[in-house]
Amino acid sequence: MAPFQPPSARTTASHPAILPSFDQMFGAVFARENQLMRVQPRQGMYLACALLARGNVSIGDLNRGIVRLLPTLQVAPWNPEPFKLGICATPPTGLPTSLLSLANNSGIGATFERMHERFAKLYRRRMFLHHYTQFMPAEDIQAASHAVLELCQDYHELPHCCMPTKLLQPMPLGISFV
């Protein structure tokens, strides 16, 4: 999922653009109607999320938005810090600020299931298969179909999982010079 805020800011002489505040953009970037795919972001579990802000934005603005939004999101229990932040001081052309969210959410599983159903209908009839078998064997197409089904199953099971009993601790590599 990759929503971008503000989606557009067209201005004319008679209708100047009303730009949202950064807090409004932060809430809108997680709204269902601003997703690039048909997905329910608040119903799925977030595995990780990158927030990329451009313009006159501070880390404090991003942290304030995360603290305000985090209680409303379902986050993977094994990821204590699911948000990664990026800031670019150069604003986008024609806008004072913008916010982009790149998220891995289990809600995308339903989209993969719909995509696989459409593929299966075409594959049963061998529709357009000759275009693909020129470049790859039919067995590879079936293997890819099975991989998508496994991915759908993994995304479906993800919200029902529980926290692992023992988390693996990273082992230091090499010699430390600290």
From TrEMBL:
Which InterPro entries does the UniProt record give? Epsilon_tubulin, Tub_FtsZ_C, Tubulin, Tubulin/FtsZ-like_C, Tubulin/FtsZ_2-layer-sand-dom, Tubulin_C
Q: Which BP terms from GO are recorded?
A: microtubule-based process
Q: Sorted alphabetically, which keywords does the UniProt record give?
A: GTP-binding, Microtubule, Nucleotide-binding
Keyword set includes GTP-binding: yes
- Please report the stretch or stretches of sequence annotated as the Tubulin/FtsZ 2-layer sandwich domain: 21-116
- Pfam families named among the record's database cross-references: Tubulin_C (PF03953)
Domain of life assignment: Eukaryota
The entry sums up its family as follows: Belongs to the tubulin family.
The protein depicted here goes by the name Tubulin/FtsZ 2-layer sandwich domain-containing protein
The source organism is Apatococcus fuscideae
